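re: ur question from earlier - yeah i can do the single chain one, its not a big deal. heres the input i used so u can compare w yours
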Amino acid sequence: MPSRDPFDCTVSDVDYVLIRQTTPDWRITNHANTQSHIMVYAVSGKADYEIAGQAYRIRPGALVLMPRGTPHTASSDQEDPWHFMSVAFRVTTANQDPEALLATLPVVSTDLSGGVATYFAQLHTAWTSREPGYLLQMRGLTSAVLFRVIEKHRQSTTDAPHTRRISAITQLLTDSFSTTYSVQELAALSGFSPSHFRTVFKKVTGLTATAYQQHVKIAKATEFLSSGEFNVTETARLTGFRDVHYFSRLYKQMTGISPSHLSQGDFFV
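and the output i got, formated as tokens:
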């Protein structure tokens, strides 16, 4: 069944890899790649970007992430023009729009761990040499870079002062999987207003409170069904669904299989 991981995605293709030492007059204006997502790594020098109306000063070690279709303008620092490497890639996701998923990540990431510069150098070597298996290698390397961005983002949100309160809420939802909470109830328990709770919960978990509860319930339902001890009706009741037909539709929508197949042992061998 789909993971509750909000960043559940797969790099499905790499369209190109570039490496470039720019000149002081290097500039792009209102450009948007409509085919691919772009990650740009600053090797040395400096550059200025304007992305979605926001200005960014790019320095060595920074990584710029632009989901497909993102308009941007950029120019090199005239005294210290930048040297960059970039990869254009595509992703597939389990249950959300790829652009929406990537848009939850920072536009510019710094202090990335894990040898991102080495990954980009290996990407360029694989792209130019085209040895057998290079496409698989490039997808893996691009995934590794994207993971470093996600990792950095996760660390920054975990350090946020409101994260502990949201973690307490997610633990409650996991422990009390048979109960369905309203946003108002969860907001009151967390000490936030409902509107602020929605914003903070989505930022920390990547999901709405409703979607998070559904994932918890469906994951628990899978445990019940695969045990062979409970039928679909019993499982729906145990996980807090009053309407077994709604439960069955939601289960199939989220997992791709009917709960009745799982309860009959047709899925596990």
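Residues 265-269 have pLDDT under 50 and may be disordered. not sure if urs matches, ping me
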